[in-house]
Amino acid sequence: MHKILIKYTKVDRMKFISHLELIRVIERALRRADIPLRFSQGFNPHPKISFASPLSVGVSSEGEYMTVEVNEKIDLGRFKDRLNSELPEGIKFIKCKYIDSKSKSLMSLVEYGTYIVKCNTKREYKKNEIEKILTNFLNRNEILFKKRGKRNKVKIINIKKLIKNMSVLSVEKKDIIFRITLSTGSRGNLKPDIVIEKLAENTELAIDLQKIRVHRLETFFFENKKGLVPLEKIN
Amino acid sequence: MNEKIEEILYKVEKPSRYIGGEINSYKKEIMENTIRFGFAFPDIYEVGMSHLGMHIIYNLLNQIDDVYCERIFSPWIDLEEILRKENVPLFTLETQSPIDQMDFIGFTLQYELSYSNILNILDLGNIPLKSSDRNSSHPIIIAGGPCAYNPEPLAEIIDVFVLGESEEVLMEIMDVYRNVKTEDLSRQEFLEKISEIQGVYIPSFYEVEYNDDNTIKNFKPKQDRYPIKIKKRIIKELDDIFYPEKVIVPYTDVVHDRAMIEIFRGCTRGCRFCQAGMIYRPIRERKSEKALELADKLLKSTGYEEISISSLSTSDYSQLNELVRSLIDNYLSKKIGVSVPSLRLDSFSIKLIEEIQKVRKTGLTFAPEAGTQRLRDVINKGITEKDLTEATANAFELGWNSVKLYFMIGLPTETYKDLDGIADLGYKVVDIYYDTPKEKRGKGLNVTISTSSFVPKPFTPFQWEPQDTTETLVEKQNYLKDKLRHRNIIYNYHDSKTSFLEAVFARGDRKLSDVLIKAWEMGCKFDGWQEHFRYETWIKAFDECGIDPSFYANRKRKYDEILPWDHIDIGVTKKYLINENEKSKEGKLTQDCRSQCTGCGINSGFIGGVC
Asked: In whole angstroms, what is the distance from residue B442 CA to residue B87 CA?
C-alpha cells in the first residue's frame, strides 16, 4: 500500500461545491484516470481518500490537502497531469508526493489555517484607524461566541485563543483585506467569518456581514521547534 | 463566471446546481451562425439531471458544430426570489446567458404537474407566456416528451410540439432553422416549413370548436396544407441511432446518480392503464454487445461507481441474462455497482438480484397493481398471486426482509373487495415471512404497501374512463389505513388532490391554457412537490376561468366523442383501444404481443409488416 499526499486548489466556481460533493468529484476523477485505488472493506466499498480540513461552501483555497491510497506505486508526474486533465476547472493538483503509508491522518494533524478575508465597510476608513481597532480587539481577554452545537445546544466559547494572528493587509476605499491565522481542525476550529462578525460586533468598525469573502492560503500542522509547518512538509 | 450571478450564488442553498462546468458539459464558442438551444427541464437540477432523455438530446445536439445546447432548470424558491428582487433573468448553466438569448427553448414534458414550472421559467426569462404574444425577437418554444401526446392544455403556450422520439426530427428542424439564421426564412415561414416534417405539431395552425356541453365539436387545420393527423416519430433501428458515450457528471447528489444504458424502447405487455406501454410501441431492442460497449465507454468517461440498465420492463429483454452477467463480470471487481431496476420478480430474477447484491440486500419491489385476480385481469396485469407468494417465499429464504408492494386504487370496476385483496396480499406476505425458518430469513420484517391513485391517460384503453372523485379516493385510503394496521406493515398513499389535478391536465383540452396561466399568476408552481402544491388556489383558478375540472377528471366519455388528442397518431388504433376497453369489462386477458400479434396497428402504418 502506498499513500500519496496531494496539495490542491479549489477556486473559482469550485468554491461553490460542498465538501461531500468534492469527495464525489475527486473519486470519479480518480476512476476516470484509472488509478489503482485502494478500497475500504464492507458493504459499500469506497476508495481510501481522506482530507485535511473541509471548506465551507463559498470559501476558495490554494492550500488544500488530501491523501489517496493506491495499491501500486505509480509515477507521480503522470498521476498529477492525468488527474488535472480529469478534474473540473477550479480544482487543480499542484503538488503530489509519497508519504509514509502509516502516517497519521491529515485530519488529526491539522492545527492551523491561514486565510485572506475580504470585507466591505459601510464608510471609508484609513488603514491605521483599522489597525488600532484591531489591536484593541485582539487585546481583549475574551471574545465570546455562542456556538450552536448538536441538538441546537448553545455553548459559549472564548474564541480569543483560537486566533493565532490577524493583520490588515490592505485598505482601499471601503474594501478591507485581512490576513488571519486560526485554529483549524479537530482540536479547535474557528471560521474566519465568525472572527469578522465578532470584530464588527465588538468594535465601531461597520462591516457589511452579508459580504465576507474568504480564501484559504495554507493549512498547517504544528511542531514544537519549528512552529507552523505547511502540510506539504509531512513525510 | 458572471459577477452578478456569482454574488447571488453566495446567498442560495446548494449553489453547485447552478454553476455548470461539470465534467462532460459542453463549452463552445458562440458565433454569429450558432443555433442556441436551451434544453429546459421544468423542475430542479437534481430531478432534471436524472433524466436520461435530457442527456441524449444534450449530447446529440452538441455533436452538431453550429448548434450549442445549454441547460435550463427551475431555480429553487430561494434563488427565484433573489432573481426577481434583483431583476436578473434566469440563466443557462453553460454560459450563464439570459435564457431569452436562445433561438429555441425546448421543454421536456415528463409529468403534467410540471406545467406551472414551464410558465415560471418563461417568466423568469422575461419571455411572454402565450405563443401569440411572442414574436421573432423571442426564442421559439418547443416541447416534447410523453405528455406531449396530449399537447392541448399547453397549446396556447408552446409554439412547436415534437411527437415521439426526437433524435432525428430535431436534426431536421435544425436543418431548416439554419435558413432563419441566414435570414432566408422568416419565423412564420420556418413554422410553415417544419409543419411538413413528420412528428411536428404546431397548435396555432389548428382551430377547435366546442359543443354546448363543452365537448369538442370540431378540430381542424386552418389551412388545407397542414396535416389533419400528426404522426409520432420513431427510431427504427436502436443500434444505429445516436447514444451518448459520455454524459454530464453532476457535482451534487442527483436522484439517479449513475451511468444508464437504455436496452430497449417500447413494451409488449399491454397493461391497460399504462400509457408508456402504448405510446412507445413498437418494441425495439439494443443488442447486448452494443449495450456492453456503451456501458464501458460511459463508465470510462464518467467515472461513475454504478451502472444501471433502463427500460420499461427489464425482464422482457431477450438477452438479459447475458447482459447482466457480463456487467457483473466486467465491473464488480472494480467496485462498480450494477443495478437492474424494473425486474419482474420470478425465480430467475431473484437469482440475478441475489448475485448483484451479494452482501447488501436492499428492498425488493413488486407491483401487483391490484388486489384481486379479477381486477388484475381487468387491467391486463399478467401477474398471479402465486407469482407473488412464490417470489417472496424465495426472497425471504435468501435472507431478504424488506418488501415493497405497489398498487393502484380507483381502477375501473374496483370494489371494496379489491381493496380487501390488497390488505390480504399484505398479510399473506407477512405470514410467508414468519413461515420461513428463522435461521434463513433476515431479522425484522418490513412490508411497505403503497397505493397511487389511478389517473386515466390518453392513448390507453382506459382513456374514456372517469377517475374516482377525491372524496372516494380518500375513503378508500382510509379504509386501507384501518385494514393495514400491523407492526410489520407500513402503508403509504399518494395525495388524492394531486392525482386529481394530474388527471385534469392529462386529458385536458385547449381551454386549460388559461387556467394554467391563471393558477401560475396566483402563485402555483412546483405542483409535484407536496409542500408547494396549492390545491385551493388551483380550484380558485378554475372557478375564475369558469371551468369545471371534474369535467376532465371524473367524466365518462363515449367512444364517439372527439377527444382533445384525436389528431395525434401514435400508431396504435382507436379501434384497438376500444376493443381492449371492452375486453377489460369482461375481465378478458390479452396476451403479450411478443408471443402473437394483438393487432394494435403499430405495424401497419409505422413500420410496415412485423414488429
From this structure: 57
